[in-house]
């Protein structure tokens, strides 16, 4: 095998791996000014952090961490698109569980979610072993990220949600990025793929052109 061909293969493999390394992270907190999380009563501070990574083409890993300073969490709702089903989520880890047959649906106040600002389609996650003050959960999905909402409550009737939940303009349609957007977080969308960030595409093109140029120079010698 010619040396230049090996270089081309290795270079393209490196470029593809760079393009796959799509990663977004952000956070919201009731301690932000203005608050990124709205909290009822004195159940605060509450914060939520997230990281969303494309681990392979069409596969996304979602990681969330919720922390509260007082009391503890009873359950929380994570918004998804209205077509999200149990087959769109796998490899759930952390200190929460859910029933795939019952806990992915449209939720309202009558289902133990006091003052839920609006009906929300998504996943209900319940801490293992009862109420906890910190939730850490991760899962894989074939749904790329989009901006959405969450709702969480404790066992005594206190509750909280991202401030953007009550935005009359609903969820932003902007592409995903680091940080929060209009007090929304990243959640699983309806399907398909998101655009590869420009730096990754440039890296792929640059490496490919570079190794092909090297091959041509060697051929002329």
Describe this structure in words.
With 221 residues, this protein is of the alpha+beta class. Helix content is 19%, strand content 37%. It has one domain (23-194). Helix 1 (3-20) packs antiparallel against helix 2.
Short descriptors:
seven-stranded antiparallel β-sheet; 221 residues; alpha+beta; globular; 2 helices; five-stranded antiparallel β-sheet
Show unreliable segments: 1-18, 192-212, 214-220
Rg, alpha carbons: 21 Å
Shape: globular
Beta strands, count: 14
Question: Helical stretch count?
Answer: 2
| Helix percent band | 10-25%
* Number of structurally distinct domains: 1
N-to-C SSE string, H for helix and E for strand? HEEEEEEEEEEEEEEH
| Protein structure class | alpha+beta
| First-to-last CA distance | 18 Å
Beta content comes to 35-45%
Average pLDDT figure: 82
Largest sheet: 7 strands, antiparallel
């Amino acid at each position: 095998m010619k040396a230049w061909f090996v270089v081309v293969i290795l270079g393209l493999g490196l470029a593809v791996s760079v393009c796959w390394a799509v990663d977004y992270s952000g956070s919201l907190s009731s301690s932000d000014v203005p608050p990124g999380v709205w909290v009822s009563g004195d159940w605060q501070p509450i914060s939520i952090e997230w990281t969303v990574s494309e681990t392979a083409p069409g596969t996304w890993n979602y990681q969330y961490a919720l922390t509260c300073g007082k009391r503890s969490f009873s359950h929380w709702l994570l918004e998804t698109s209205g077509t999200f089903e149990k087959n769109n989520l796998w490899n759930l880890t952390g200190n929460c569980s859910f029933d795939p047959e019952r806990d992915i649906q449209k939720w309202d106040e009558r289902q133990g979610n006091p003052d839920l600002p609006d009906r929300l389609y998504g996943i209900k996650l319940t801490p293992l072993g009862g109420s906890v003050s910190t939730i850490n959960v991760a899962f894989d999905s074939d749904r790329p990220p989009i901006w959405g909402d969450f709702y969480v409550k404790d066992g005594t009737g206190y509750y909280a949600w991202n401030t953007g939940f009550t935005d009359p303009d609903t969820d932003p349609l902007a592409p995903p990025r680091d940080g929060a957007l209009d007090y929304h977080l990243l959640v699983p969308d309806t399907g398909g793929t998101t655009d590869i960030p420009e730096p990754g595409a440039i890296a792929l093109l640059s490496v490919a052109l570079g190794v092909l140029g090297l091959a041509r120079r060697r051929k002329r010698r």
